[in-house]
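Entry type: protein chain
Record version: 2
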Amino acid sequence: MENNFNNQNDYNIYSSLDGYDKSFNDNTFSENKNNKKEKKRFSFLTLFLCVLIAASVGATTALGAVFLSGNLFKDQEKGNTVVVTDDGKQQIISEIKVDETVSSVIEAVAKKVTPSVVGIATTASTNNFFGGGSETTGEGSGIIYSKDGYIITNYHVIESAVNSSSSKIEVYLSSNTEKAYTASVVGYNISHDLAVIKITADNLVPIELADADSLRVGQYVAAIGSPGGLDFMGSVTYGIISGLNRVISDSSTGSAVELIQTDAAINPGNSGGALVNIEGKLIGVNSSKIAATEYEGMGFAIPVDTVKTICDNIIANKDTPNPYIGVTISDRYSADDLKQLGYPVGAVVSSVIKNGPAYEAGIRRGDIITSFNGKALKDYTELSDLVAATKPGDKVSVKIYRSGKYYTTKIKIASNNAQ
């Protein structure tokens, strides 16, 4: 209905809602107007007093609730806020303390960890058939493992130097980036992409190791290394742990390993560098990065417990030569799966390391290994046991199925680690 004040009945209706008398005249309007001003003053004063009383009551109630439901106090000795609830239990609210010389946790982490991260440069020479030669160089990162010069890195960082008859590995410390220390190879593990090298130096700053069992998705982490090479040595990026126990097949090492996933930026040159928690303790060795337009922020690191086990064995020379053929086997195809698809039972090859034993024997991705060293495979899980039963240097017969035909070849078993 349209509001038309020319209609007397409509006006009287609206007037009654405002407290006016229905009999409309100038005197009544003037008198009621004054009364309305007084009512407005009274209403405002009343409203103000009500708000004031309500606020006081609310504050008193809230304060009382704290002391009735739990006592809030400061634990001066430990610097924590403690709430004691009705049942007598204490709920501790930890307070993060940052050293006065730094402005943030990440800055504190960088200050602590950077002296333990090094830059690595490799130079490898090769000769061709015509007597000429060529030289290849590479750069990466490493982590000081002991104060007397043992350094952890990725195998692929030093791979070219390991496979070259004439090579050189140099290490640069954060304290003096102009001085190069010549490093020797202590040992390596190809399957886990880990290596240990050593320089002649004393009083180095070794990395502190974290407890692998304490890792949780969502925890803050920092990656420190040389992305893009030694010119960017000591670069720091940060993010979170995006995932744990990620099984990644690495075509460069021919194996599938469990890794830590992080969104901290990891670029070429970061390999072999440190992934640390906010306490500056090592949780992983940066190893690889999915580099594709559809992926963003997916970096990976070898977990600290794996690193410690393998590197301790290498340093202590407790490793026995591990047989190695250089293939990754898919776990997607069981014996029943292959039978249903019309294929023979065996181990489906998902990747082959280039120039590895299997590659030299002619085995390629997609082949099905049906027999190894004279024993037919009943399932893909049997292959690892059959390989483990051999020794580096052995030559074994391997039967494969490819494109409807069977082929037989020989593989010379290699060593997964240097001695």
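Comment: DSSP finds eight helices and 24 strands in the chain.
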